[in-house]
Amino acid sequence: MSTQGHTWARQVKKEDEEEDPLDQLISRSGCAASHYAVQECMAQHQDWRQCQPQVQAFRDCMSEQQARRREELQRRKEQGGAHH
Question: What residues make up the domain containing 75?
Answer without folding.
Answer: 21-80
